[in-house]
Amino acid sequence: MCRHLAFLGEPVALGELLLRPPHSLERQSWEPRTQTSGVVNADGFGVGWWAEDDPVPARYRRAAPIWGDPGFADLARVVRTGALLAAVRGATLPGSDGEAAAAPFAADGWLFSHNGAVPGWPGSLAPLAATLPAPELLALEARTDAAFLWALVLHRLRSGDPPERALAGTVREVAEAAPGARLNLLLTDGSTITATTWGDSLSHLTGPDRTVVASEPYDDDPRWRPVPDRTVLTASRSGVVLTPLEEPSP
């Protein structure tokens, strides 16, 4: 299990969103309030953000817990952005992928994160692997369920699907292949945010200076609204649209 957050709005320091709030993503790494599986998110973290007039997002990822990286705290104090995606990775079985397994994953100007789990991984999704071209499988950043889900989403995006269809289609095919999967996906290109709820919590906040979509609220602002399960969320700087996500066909 993981926690993640995406933001669009007036430029702010990374730390204002990720470190300073009373229930920041940093605190959620060791004391999540709405997480239903696992108790600590200490197997790495990452943040991707856009600089002004640059279409390619920068990323900072580490295999260590976010609370143990003083270099990131210093960077987050001064780096400002109007769009970001950040995540803390749930504690998992030992692996050799290191920071490559930490979201956000990136390609073609997109940032992506997965909050959840896929039962029976990797065997349960072996049939879906056959649907991807070999070069795309070989390009996986890590041997994790999240990295594979990103490959499925990216394949759909490159085939022309809009982001909401790419996420919804991926969720349905994975849920059919691995019943019981938890598939909260988060995707942004720096202008819009698209997300799914499938088995775990998600909330959104829309204000005059920002739109935020997060696994759980980082403060007690009454403008936070929960997103119902089985939903596709599409957000911009001006608002949020919620669409029911259909179950896979029997």
From TrEMBL:
Q: What is this protein called?
A: Gamma-glutamyl-hercynylcysteine sulfoxide hydrolase
- Listed HAMAP family: EgtC (MF_02036)
Q: What class of enzyme is it?
A: hydrolase
Tell me the classification of the organism that encodes this protein.
Answer: Bacteria, Bacillati, Actinomycetota, Actinomycetes, Kitasatosporales
MF term (GO), any: hydrolase activity, acting on carbon-nitrogen (but not peptide) bonds, in linear amides
Q: What is its pathway?
A: Amino-acid biosynthesis; ergothioneine biosynthesis
- Report the superkingdom from the record: Bacteria
Q: What does this protein do?
A: Catalyzes the hydrolysis of the gamma-glutamyl amide bond of hercynyl-gamma-L-glutamyl-L-cysteine sulfoxide to produce hercynylcysteine sulfoxide, a step in the biosynthesis pathway of ergothioneine.
Q: Which organism is it from?
A: Streptomyces showdoensis
Reactions catalysed: gamma-L-glutamyl-hercynylcysteine S-oxide + H2O = S-(hercyn-2-yl)-L-cysteine S-oxide + L-glutamate
